[in-house]
Amino acid sequence: MAIGSEGAKPSIRTRLLATRDVGEIAAQPEAEGESLKRAVGASQLTALGVGGIIGTGIFVVIGEGAALAGPAVILSFVLAAVACIFSALSYAELASTIPVSGSAYTYAYATLGEAVAWIIGWDLILEYGVSVAAVAVGWGGNFNAFLDAAFGVQLPTAISTSPEDGGVFNLPAVLIVMAITLLLIIGIRESARVNFVMVGVKLAVLVFFIVIALANFNSGNLSPFAPQGYDGVVSAAAVIFFAFIGFDAISTGSEEARDPKRDLPLAIIGSLLICTVFYVLTALGAVGIATPEQLSGSDAPLAAALDEGAGIGWAAAVLAFGAVVAITSVILVILYGQSRIFFAMCRDGLMPKRLAKVHPRFGTPARLTLMLGIAISFLAALIPLSEIVKLVNIGTLFAFVLVNIGVIILRRTRPDLPRSYKVPFSPWFPLLGIAFAFYLMIDLPPETWIRFVVWLAIGVAIYAVYGFRRSRVGQEVARGRQTQPPVDQA
Length: 490
What we know:
This protein is mainly alpha-helical. Helix content is 68%, strand content 1%. The protein has 19 helices and two strands. It has helices at residues 12-17, 22-32, 42-53, 56-69, 73-97, 104-111, 114-151, 171-186, 188-215, 229-240, 260-289, 292-296, 301-309, 315-347, 366-382, 391-413, 428-442, 446-470, 472-478; strands at 3-6, 481-483. Strands 1-2 form a two-stranded antiparallel ribbon. It starts with a strand and ends in a 7-residue tail after the last strand.
């Protein structure tokens, strides 16, 4: 911790800018018996990344992208991947250098100070929580579609949709969230194994689609290739970008990786590359057997492409099953990430420390995970999500900005720090990551910015009342020890 000798009470500005030493952050959990089990390797971490990325995005968003870019949606997927890779490289460096729970929150605490760490932690709590609730609602819809396509039955509207959509209680969404919650409580090793199987299934479904599509490929569908020109490609990339979000959740598993310095960079970069290859091949196959109008006119564009383009009507059941499995793994990975970020904040005293208890048998933050699961289940069952879900986009991009800034600052303040992986061409690559994130944030609607500012204002109020004095740094100040600001501002 950036704590100095006994002295006068530090100014509020100094307190807000106080950072925590990287070495102490890494050693603290072991010293206090609050560490999580190191139980997963590179392949399981990579599967977590793929599990978090490939979900409703590729099964749905490709239709929206095709409406904007036409067949050039293939280039939009490439452009979106390029926009993500710079931030992924920064995540890889910080995750391997600071291998503890917390992801962007912990990185901000080590580089930008406690106040910024709180803001990004508060932001991520919203981002991950709303993501899980929204995806769970989507899971319920896809599960109903699978039952209809495979067996010709559907669940009653009253128990399968929220009040916003004419129902009473979204039971499927509640059941899937609670099932994933219990799995995460049992252990990260067991969760990673289940996720590994689900990732294998959904990749097999995409391979099925790609093979069938390429076997029935019609090059005439590629003309005109870019009806809206460059603007259409960029607009589609802004939409498709969010199909790549999820690799950042890998960094929340830093403390549970067996060899974080080696495994985390491999998993973060590897999962993004794997998903990019699958996305581009899927997009190529889709535009090769269906027109942009056919893709954009369906809620299940891949199934529509196989039905109308390749004449395989029964494929809808296969694709619906793949979507259910894909979304299940997304729920698992994102809920896992949220629980680890919340856990790190509790352990640092910014949230109630009693929630940072590790279960003696399972080696997981069981109490905290159960609390989050119940809260998200309530959100998914009853609360309208059509507007608040937009906060996910701005929250993710904001985290990307701070992670890239963190790499630049830590290179300056701690050039001697051992780094098993370094972002190449720093600071230029992190600066490009910042530029891409800001470019996409600017395109978000004003109401999203307003909601985001309101959420941050609530977080600032909670920090001022609770976290400012109860954090580890705050407790040291209360005992009369003086904090120090970040090195570059001292």
